[in-house]
Amino acid sequence: MSKKILLTGFFALVFLSALYGQTHWLGLGPSVPLADFGEADVEHPTSGMAATGMALGYEFIGPTDSVGLAIFFNASFIWNPFDESSEAQIESSMRSPPENLKYSHYFGLPMAAGVNFSPRNTWQVSAGGVISFFKPSAMVMGRDVYKIKGTTGFGLTLGASLHIGSRVALKARYYWLTNHRLKNGYYRYYNSPENKVQNVNELTAMLAFRLGD
């Protein structure tokens, strides 16, 4: 199945969710990198060297049927700093680290759509597909600037919500995002290929507030 077909189907589902959206939520909390994305070893060929950061998320859920099923859409802006132990490994390999050494930060925008199941009013679970936009910032080592191009990937997501009253909820979401193709990256500094494929596994946990009535 081509990317165009996947994108068309995804945004059609987003449009339907927006058209019939019933509840809207805005949340903030930590974003925890997992698996290869959170691997700190700079010699590991697929390590992301990302540390725990922050996530700002928006979600809306359509009307729930008699079984408890509804369509949902979720978008999160995610930021992760460079892991400090990875910084230490890089600097220990240098004879004299430059004063203007600047490490990358990671910025992501995963957008998910799928099915939400709420058998009870106090908790919900959801699952769906994801389109993710991912962009590390540049890394500076003295006169060398290592820029990394942004990339688009696809993946899956699982989520859970625990409601505290009618307007506050605790929301956790796991993103499994594959095949982010990073080009012209600083990872060639430690003898990895100039271009590599980075899988991004991320767990977000947010305190969310219901918007509107």
Automatic annotation (TrEMBL):
Q: Which domain of life is it from?
A: Bacteria
Q: What is this protein called?
A: Outer membrane beta-barrel protein
Q: Which organism was this protein described from?
A: Marinoscillum luteum
